[in-house]
């Protein structure tokens, strides 16, 4: 006994009770579908996968699968920077 009425086709003044009920049911279905989609987008596994893929695309060449040279340079620079910071801080404590 569905009239396949969409909410934009029905006004409260002109609709029958069954049309209003069908309109409400269809709206609830759309809202439930939207909520399911949003929950899927913010699920921790989905977020983690998206972050891993983003990180991989930053570091790895898509065509060849090799590591990008700028990623290697950034990694080496970071390691050297941290090492210099550690050496600098350890030398500072011995002077006092």
Please characterize this protein's 3D structure.
The protein is mainly alpha-helical and 96 residues long. It folds into 2 domains: 1-41; 43-96, no CATH class. Helix content is 71%, strand content 0%. The mean pLDDT is 84.
Brief synopsis:
InterPro entries: DUF3618. The chain is mainly α. It folds into two domains: 1-41; 43-96, no CATH class.
Q: Provide the succession of SSEs.
A: HHH
pLDDT averaged over residues: 84
Globally, the shape reads elongated
State the share of residues found in helices, binned by percent. over 70%
Compute the CA-based radius of gyration: 29 Å
- Please indicate the percent range of residues in DSSP E strands (runs of 2 or more): under 5%
Judged by helices, strands and strand pairing, the structural class is mainly alpha
Q: Total domains, how many?
A: 2
Q: Give the termini separation.
A: 88 Å
How many beta-strand elements? 0
**Uncertain regions spanning at least 5 consecutive residues:** none
Q: What is the overall number of helices?
A: 3
Transmembrane segments: 71-91
Keywords: Membrane, Transmembrane, Transmembrane helix
InterPro entries: DUF3618
Protein name: DUF3618 domain-containing protein
Question: How are the SSEs ordered, and which strands pair?
Answer:
Layout: H1 17-41, H2 44-59, H3 69-95
Throw out a few tags for this protein:
96 residues, mainly alpha, 2 domains, membrane, DUF3618, DUF3618 domain-containing protein
